[in-house]
Write a structure and sequence with these properties.
Layout (H helix, E strand, L loop, with lengths): L8 H10 L16 H9 L4 H10 L6 H12 L15 H6 L31 H13 L1
Length: about 140
């Protein structure tokens, strides 16, 4: 026996019309009345930290991060911070491309200008044989 009752759409519509969100959940609910003051302080080059400190001293419950977020989203019109772009190299692309050997530079004439080519330096490792010789010579003297 499956007895399903149809939903009461009229009571649902009434509940939607009477719904009011929790004021603590509304974004920037406590900063919106202070919008003009925040704009004025930003016009005077006040940092978000200073603005937050002034607001907290005058009884507004907020934080530096919340004031900064309000400034980025509301004052600057949702302006996003720029992120650095980086290129990704896929390991498959590196494996499929063979590396071609580079030919040695040819010096045609001694008077022509050739940029100096520095050899690629690897890790610097101590020469153990030289160290043993120095230690042995210091112990004998």
């Amino acid at each position: 026996m499956n007895t399903s009752s149809s939903p009461n759409l009229e009571s649902l519509r009434q509940a939607i019309q009477n719904f009011t969100p929790n004021p603590r959940r509304v974004p920037f609910n406590n900063l919106k009345p202070l919008h003009d003051a925040i704009v004025e302080l930003r016009g005077k080059n006040a940092s978000y930290a200073i603005i937050a400190e002034l607001l907290m001293q005058n009884g507004v419950k907020t934080s530096v991060a919340r004031v900064a977020e309000y400034g980025r989203i509301v004052l600057e019109g949702g302006k996003r911070r720029k992120r650095r772009k980086f290129t990704r190299t896929t390991p498959t692309a590196l494996q499929t491309e063979p590396t071609a050997p580079q030919p040695a530079p040819q010096i045609s004439t001694p008077t022509s200008f050739q940029p100096a080519i520095k050899p690629e330096r690897g890790p610097r490792i101590a020469n153990i044989r030289m160290l043993k010789d120095k230690v042995a010579s210091n112990q004998t003297s």
